[in-house]
Design a protein that fits this description.
By secondary structure, the chain is α/β, with parallel strands linked by helices. The protein has a single domain, classed as Aldolase class I (TIM Barrel). The protein contains eleven helices and twelve strands. The chain has a twelve-stranded mixed β-sheet with strand order 7-8-9-6-5-4-3-2-1-10-11-12. α3 links the parallel β2 and β3. The chain is globular, with a radius of gyration of 20 Å. The N terminus is likely disordered.
């Protein structure tokens, strides 16, 4: 390992000076999502335009490490690596290996280190990621029928690779594997029951996510969203669903199982049932900018300050100032709502 990479080890002395990262609404910020690339090998209809020739931005791995270390020193307890597609990123295993050494400042517990991937490369990467110290993995997968999957991703001959990746992640015990499905009316609402069966047969947690206005093609309308009551009705037509308790107050998913206790389904409904009041998340884009909400109209250039010589203390002060101004909530569907200035692939999933 290069000597220039920062030491991420937790130190007992940090606890004495620890002050929780808070916003002005009294919410503790404990979760950091880090996009390590905005490159992707998919062109999903609800995300990308499908056009080639885009320009991409990525930071050196050492710079992500320094930035994450500062966030951890401010009380971050969970880090999720995202993209784009993070498995495309050179140096990923090095990044995971170094981050896995981190300890939380509040109690010295290991950092909860997770990753979201489309699964295309996961079968070959699952064991190396586990060996490097990754805690958990979530796979984005929007259909369990190959032809519908190809229609959404616009990448042929990938479905079997994703299923193999999910099974590989389970085999090496990368947490209780979650599978995220973005529901988009006219594309995959007929996959709800097949996904319920998939959750039961494969032993994964399937989470349905409402389609949000974060796509490059600007396809989103309220009519394209499949709301929670309709989703529950479709699930109950297969088998009656039973609510489960939330794992944490800030959990985004409403949890359900079926009447026989087999399978778990999560519903993430940021459009119809917003959960902003308990939000604990902050985001770092692949080019080093802080975003306080998916639907922010502004980026805050943390990397620019670092690049121009800011000390760790100055960067920490900047982070605190930005987080303090975190929005109370988003305004999707309300009069005057403006879609964010960047699409999901550039913000980080």
């Amino acid at each position: 390992m290069s000597a220039s990479l920062p030491d991420l080890d937790w130190k007992e002395s940090s606890r004495a000076t620890f002050s929780r990262l808070m916003d002005k609404h009294g919410r503790a910020i404990t979760d950091l999502r880090v996009s390590i690339t905005d490159r992707c090998n998919y062109k999903c209809v609800y995300c990308r335009t499908g056009n080639d020739g885009a320009q991409y931005a990525e930071l050196p791995i050492a710079d992500y490490l320094r930035i994450v270390r500062i966030f951890v020193e401010l009380g971050i307890e969970k880090v999720r690596l995202t993209g784009g597609e993070p498995l495309l990123r050179k140096g990923l295993l090095e990044l995971v290996r170094e981050l896995s050494k981190s300890r939380t400042v509040a109690n010295g517990a290991p950092l909860d280190l997770a990753l979201t991937t489309n699964g295309h490369l996961l079968a070959e990467m699952a064991q190396p990621l586990k060996d490097a110290g990754l805690s958990r993995v979530t796979v984005s997968m929007d259909a369990v029928e190959p032809d519908i999957f190809t229609r959404i991703t616009r990448v042929p001959q990938s479905f079997d690779k994703v299923v193999a990746g999910i099974r590989a992640a389970q085999r090496v015990e990368l947490g209780h594997v979650k599978v995220n499905c973005v529901l988009l009316r006219g594309f995959n609402e007929d996959q709800i029951v097949p996904f319920a069966k998939f959750a039961r047969d494969e032993g994964v947690i399937v989470r349905f996510i409402e389609f949000m206005p974060l796509e490059e093609d600007r396809l989103w309308t309220l009519a394209s969203v499949i709301p929670v009551p309709e989703l529950l009705e479709r699930l109950s037509a297969f088998r009656p669903v039973v609510p489960l308790k939330a794992n944490a107050r800030s959990e985004t998913a409403q949890r359900y199982t079926f009447d026989d206790g087999v399978g778990e389904i999560g519903i993430i409904a940021p459009v119809s049932q917003a959960f902003c009041g308990h939000c604990s998340r902050i985001r770092l884009t692949s080019d080093g900018k802080i975003r306080t909400c998916l639907f922010s109209q502004f980026d805050h250039d943390l990397y620019g300050r670092m690049h121009h010589g800011a000390t760790d203390e100055e960067m920490a002060a900047f982070i605190r100032a930005i987080v303090e101004q975190k929005e109370a909530r988003h305004h999707i569907g309300e009069p005057g709502f403006l879609k964010p200035s960047r699409s999901m692939v550039h913000i980080g999933g």
